[in-house]
Design a protein that fits this description.
Length: 301
C-alpha cells in the first residue's frame, strides 16, 4: 500500500509510484497514433466519415457511468477486505484479554494465542499464495507448523487447534462456561472474517460485465478520432490521449482494487497487519514484541 504525503501540483504530473500510467502507456500512445493516422488520411488522401461530437459525448457519459459503477464495486471489495483484517486484529486483541480473564497465565494461554498468530500468517499465505512457514515456526514449532500447512485450509487448522485447546480446558474444568462461550464467540468472529476474505479472493467481479466495459472502452477510444477531426483538428491526438488516459486508467485502477490481497503497491499491507498481531500477542504474553514494519520507499507491504 502506498503511504506518502500528497504530492505538490508540480510533482503530481511526474509521480509514477503507484500510478497506472506505466501499465496503460502503450494504449494511450496507440490511441494518439491512431488519431494522427486518421488526420493524415483525412487531410492528404481521402475525406473520412465524421462522427457527431454530441453522439460521442452521450456515448462517453454512458461509458463513464459503467466505469464508475465498476470502480465503486472494486473499491467496496478493497475496503471490505481492509475492514475484515481490522476485525481480525481486534479479535486477536480481545482474545488476549479473554485469556487473561478466564484462563490466566500459563501454557494453555500461550498455546491459544500463539495459534492466533499462526492463523493470521497462514491466512495471509493463502490469500497471497506465499510460503509462511518461516513466520510461524517461532510461535508454534516445527511439528505443529508442518501439520497445519499440510491441511487443505491451514488457517482453519489453526482455529481448530485453538478450539481443541479450549475444549480441553473445559473438560478439565479449568474455565467457566461463560468464559468458554465468550472465547468461542471470538473464535467464531475470526472464522467469519476468514470466510469473508476467502469470498473476496475467490469471487472476482462478474467476467461478463468486465468484458463489456473493456470492449466498450476500446470502441470509444478507437472511434473518438473520427469525432475530433473537425472539432479539434491537429489537437485531436492530444485530446484522444487524455480521454484514453482517463478511461483506460479507470479500468486499470479497477483491476488493481478488485483483488486487494495481491502483493502489489496498491494492495493491502497484510505483512504489516500480521506484524501488528504479533506485537499484540507478544505483549499479552509478556514477551519482547517485534518492531512494527516500516514504510520502504513509500510502500507498506
Amino acid at each position: 500500500m502506498i503511504v506518502r504525503e500528497h504530492p505538490s501540483s508540480l510533482q503530481l504530473f511526474f509521480v509514477m509510484q503507484g500510478s497506472v500510467v506505466p501499465k496503460i502507456i502503450g494504449r494511450i500512445i496507440g490511441v494518439a497514433l491512431l488519431s494522427v493516422i486518421v488526420l493524415l488520411i483525412d487531410q492528404y488522401l481521402v475525406a473520412l466519415p465524421r462522427i457527431s461530437i454530441g453522439a460521442m459525448g452521450i456515448f462517453g457519459v454512458a461509458l463513464s457511468l459503467f466505469l464508475g459503477f465498476r470502480n465503486n464495486a472494486a473499491y467496496d471489495r478493497w475496503w471490505e477486505a481492509r475492514k475484515l483484517w481490522g476485525s481480525m486484529i481486534a479479535d486477536v486483541r480481545n482474545l488476549g484479554r479473554h485469556m487473561c480473564v478466564f484462563v490466566g497465565k500459563g501454557a494453555d494461554r500461550a498455546h491459544i494465542l500463539s495459534c492466533a498468530v499462526a492463523f493470521a500468517h497462514l491466512h495471509r499465505g493463502f490469500l497471497r499464495g506465499v510460503d509462511v512457514r518461516a513466520d510461524i515456526l517461532d510461535w508454534i514449532g516445527e511439528e505443529k507448523a508442518a501439520t497445519m500447512i499440510a491441511r487443505k485450509n491451514p488457517a482453519d487448522a489453526a482455529l481448530r487447534s485453538m478450539a481443541d485447546q479450549l475444549g480441553k480446558l473445559a473438560n478439565d474444568d479449568a474455565i467457566s462456561g461463560f468464559g468458554q462461550m465468550t472465547i468461542s464467540q471470538t473464535l467464531s468472529s475470526l472464522a467469519l472474517a476468514q470466510a469473508g476474505c476467502e469470498r473476496i479472493v475467490t469471487t472476482p467481479l462478474p467476467f461478463v460485465y468486465s468484458l463489456l466495459v473493456r470492449r466498450t472502452t476500446y470502441l470509444y477510444c478507437w472511434l473518438l478520432p473520427f469525432a475530433l477531426i473537425e472539432a479539434t483538428s491537429w489537437f485531436a491526438p492530444v485530446f484522444s490521449a487524455v480521454v484514453a488516459y482517463v478511461f483506460f486508467g479507470l479500468q486499470a485502477v479497477t483491476n488493481e482494487l478488485e483483488l486487494p490481497f495481491r502483493h502489489v503497491q496498491n494492495g493491502l499491507p497484510l505483512d504489516a497487519m500480521c506484524r501488528t498481531i504479533e506485537i499484540s500477542v507478544s505483549e499479552a504474553l509478556d514477551r519482547q514484541p517485534p518492531e512494527p514494519l516500516g514504510v520502504t520507499n513509500h510502500v507498506l507491504s
